[in-house]
Amino acid sequence: MLQREYKKQILKRARRVVVKIGSQILSSSQGIEEGRIKELVRDLAALQDQGKELVVVSSGAVAAGMTRLGVRHRPKTVPQKQALAAVGQIKLMAIYEKHFSRFDKSVAQVLLTHEDLADRQRYLNAKHTLQTLLESSIVPVVNENDTVAVEEIKFGDNDHLSALVATLLEADLLVILSDVDGIFDRDPREHEEARLIPLIEDIKRSRETLSGESRSLYGTGGISSKIAAAEKAAAAGIPTLIANGLHSGILPKLFDAKEEMGTLVLPEENRLASRKHWIAYNLKPSGEIVVDQGAYEALVQKGKSLLPSGLREVRGSFGVGECVRCLDPHGREFARGLVNYGAQELNQIKGLHTSKIEKVLGYKAYDEIIHRDDLVVL
């Protein structure tokens, strides 16, 4: 009942929506399942007719490539997967274009790598392009650029990508469709008494309380990535609905305030500013720094900048302006930030008073190692 109350409020103001469709929905061991895409497109078109601005984050390029080339077994090597993705992305978009055109809707292909959203200028370029498409009532179909993506520039999964796209566009709602009914208090495949959690009000607290109890949260099946995606969205003030996309007519049910479906994850009240969310979730840390207890308390409790005097240890090799993990004296990550000095320089000035920076380095670019405007407490 409580989910319906929150859902009614959220749907009332949900104009811009990101819908992530997992590979489990669009494909089988035989390749792409066009019939499922056809049904989902019908329901997406109906939502757009209701005034929604829609962005689809779609998996399925490799499966579509398998179908196109008659490959029966999913490839194991990266080059084989990338080759199939190159062939399959064309077929996948052709299927989307074919079925959206039945409702007089236009679609656009947007392929991204993590590097595109980690670079601030490219991040803003992607944002402006997607916004222009939405203003023209065109449905962007977003996918990771698997053909060129290697480990260093991969998102990891499209759940992560969907959360970043939702944040990029300041969406009102993120919908993640997978082959599970939602988040359970334990693994439903192993426990018959497993209970679906219809509403998660505090995603961070839920992760802590369920981490030791629920394999559905952190185990196999991809649920952990969906929870992580919902947490990223929540930090940006965006609610998330996680539901089973294999159920016929799932989208109309999710967008019916009277229906209780899946798991609704509520957003945080104190949302991160756009730039700080970008630092926390779009950048891949290049190293780590360990601070002392005094610096830890100043950063977390008082919102201060990090000064050299509070730095104890530097780990890794990184340059000026790169993102680093900030660890407390016990080695636990508590923040991320952009450094004003490289690793080599930090090793020379760690533990020193700000007034001694210039004497040691021969110059002083900044008083702070990380300015509070470039620091995100996690």
What is the secondary structure topology, with strand pairs?
Layout: H1 2-13, E1 16-21, H2 23-26, E2 27-28, E3 31-32, H3 34-49, E4 53-58, H4 61-69, H5 78-101, E5 106-112, H6 114-118, H7 120-135, E6 138-144, H8 158-168, E7 173-178, E8 199-200, H9 203-210, H10 215-218, H11 223-235, E9 240-244, H12 250-254, E10 263-265, H13 274-282, E11 287-291, H14 293-301, E12 311-315, E13 323-327, E14 333-338, H15 343-349, H16 357-361, E15 375-377
Parallel strand pairs: 1-4, 1-7, 4-6, 5-6, 7-9, 8-10, 11-13
Antiparallel strand pairs: 2-3, 9-10, 11-12, 13-14, 14-15
Helix pairs in contact: 3-5, 4-5, 8-11
Polypeptide structure, described:
- The protein has 378 residues and is an alpha/beta fold.
- It has two domains: 2-276, Acetylglutamate kinase-like (Carbamate kinase, 3-Layer(aba) Sandwich), CATH 3.40.1160.10; 285-377, Archaeosine Trna-guanine Transglycosylase, Chain: A, domain 4 (Roll), CATH 2.30.130.10.
- The protein contains 16 helices and 15 strands.
- The protein has helices at 2-13, 23-26, 34-49, 61-69, 78-101, 114-118, 120-135, 158-168, 203-210, 215-218, 223-235, 250-254, 274-282, 293-301, 343-349, 357-361, and strands at residues 16-21, 27-28, 31-32, 53-58, 106-112, 138-144, 173-178, 199-200, 240-244, 263-265, 287-291, 311-315, 323-327, 333-338, 375-377.
- The strands form three sheets. Strands 5-6-4-1-7-9-10-8 form an eight-stranded mixed beta sheet, sandwiched between helices.
- Helix 3 packs across helix 5 (78-101), helix 4 crosses helix 5 (78-101) and helix 8 runs parallel beside helix 11 (223-235).
- The longest helix is centred in the first third of the chain and has 24 residues, at 78-101.
